[in-house]
Structures are given as C-alpha cells and as structure tokens.
Write a structure and sequence with these properties.
Elements: E1 9-11, E2 14-24, E3 36-45, E4 50-55, E5 62-69, E6 73-81, E7 86-95, E8 98-105, E9 112-120, E10 123-131
Length: about 130
C-alpha cells in the first residue's frame, strides 16, 4: 500500500523509453485503486543486436526485414545466395540505435534459399529466407 507503481513497456523487440502523463490516480499502489495514463511518446531501445524477423518467410515477391541496433553505427545489410554471392545490397548507411525495417523486393531474383546478413558494431547476424515464385 502506497508504494510507487513502476510502468514499463516491453515487447519482443526490447524495452521502450516513453513519456506519459497521469490522467487519473497518483502512481501509487492502492487496494482497488486506479491510475490512468496517456502515452506521449515512445522510443524503441532494443537491448539485443540482430535480425528480428523476415515476414513473410517463405515469401513470393516481397518480405519485410526487421532488425534492431542497440547502438548507432555503420550498418550493412546484404542478401546472399547459397553460393555466397552478393544478390542485393539492402543497406549501407550510418543508422541510429533502435528498431529498423526494410522491404525486400525479390521480383528480379530467382526462386531459392538466400541468407540475410546484418553487420554493425563489430557484430554479425544472419537469417535464412526462402523465395518461392
């Protein structure tokens, strides 16, 4: 009774920093108490580096690649075929920390298995994707 409430916003991408305003209540625990808040802004701050998902996978012509960076830096995101040849250069930029996504258009690619490789901050993450036409 009377202890402060801790409000956290978390999903599969990590924890989020956010600002809020109290609309009702007092941010303290009370039996049968109620606190209503309104979120003002949300900023994703992933705690883990890597490719989060490619959805859909397998894909027919388009898939969305989601990845997270716990710190800003130079980022390379490439698509390679099974022989290790570069099929597409998707990202080659300086990016801020946070959750990012990019659409992969496979219309000019042949059906098959590919690997997405994310390089940033001296780390590498890979994921297999399948293109089915």
């Amino acid at each position: 009774e009377g202890e402060a409430l801790e409000i956290r916003l978390v999903d599969e991408n990590g924890e989020y920093d956010f600002q809020f305003e109290v609309l009702e209540g007092n941010l303290g625990y009370e039996t049968d108490g109620l606190t209503v808040i309104r979120l003002k802004s949300i900023e994703a701050m992933p705690i883990e580096f890597g490719i989060v998902s490619a959805c859909p996978n397998p894909f027919n012509s388009n898939t969305v690649i989601r990845y997270s960076l716990p710190e800003s830096g130079q980022v390379q995101l490439n698509l390679y075929d099974l022989q290790g040849r570069l099929a597409l250069d998707l990202v080659n930029n300086e990016l801020s920390a946070g959750a990012h996504s990019i659409s992969l258009n496979g219309l000019k690619l042949v059906s098959g298995i590919y690997f997405i490789e994310l390089q940033a901050c001296d780390k590498i993450s890979m994921m297999k994707v399948v293109l089915v036409k």
